[in-house]
Amino acid sequence: MSRRRVPLPSPAMAVAVCALFVALGGASYALTIPRNSVGPNQLRTHAVTSTKLGTGAVTTRAIRDGAISGRKIGSGGVHASDLAGGSVRSAALANGAVTGAKLAPDSVSATQLILPVVSVEAFSAVLPANQNGFRVVGATCPANHRAVGGGGGWVGAESTDAIGYGTVAGNRPTPPTAGTDTQNGWEVYGTDAANPIDRRLMATAICIAT
Q: How confident is the model at residue 22 (pLDDT cuts 50, 70, 90)?
């Protein structure tokens, strides 16, 4: 009885088997990458996207100064609770960025406003000593201004020192049209009895630019 000979593998089969072992060995190596062996130099540009970052993975220390601009912040992305006290200054606000609708009630006081206030004075004709008389005088604001207040009283003929004579009957904004914002001056009127010095009536208008 003769033995049956088992054919030997062909050279092509041997090469294929070797390639299989190499491939398996390479896959095994890829699954066992040494720790800390991948750094910034091994990453392609844009290789790490936002979906690959874990929650809290990027901290403030990892962000360089100026890296996040306004265009990179989504609408509503920054809330009041996210802002440190004093972190937003006037230089950081664009013109017209803050409107009345964005201000909380009583959030702006008079001391925080820089208003171009102008004080204007005017004087009546002198009322001579020992004469009775009525005087009316009005102070007018500069152009493009409006009156927001005023007053007046009797003063010396050549000074603004108040004197203890005379009566101010009244004072009012001019023109005296209630309910409008056209007042651009302040008027004072009053009567003085016979007093021993020359005197005059003074009016002062407090104006702001419009």
A: low
* Contact between 187 and 172 (Cβ < 8 Å): yes
The model's pLDDT over 149-206, given as tens digits with 9 standing for 90+, comes to 999 999 999 999 988 878 899 999 999 876 677 899 999 999 988 788 999 999 999 9
Which structural domain, as residue segments, surrounds residue 167? 117-209
Length reported for the chain: 210
Helices H, strands E: what count in the chain?
1, 6
> Which ranges constitute the DSSP H helices of the chain?
11-30
Report CA 205 to chain centroid distance, whole Å: 31
Please give the structure tokens belonging to residue 172.
Answer: 């009012």
Given a contact cutoff of 8 angstroms between Cβ atoms, the answer to whether 183 and 173 are in contact is yes
pTM recorded for the entire structure = 0.51
Number of domains in the chain: 1
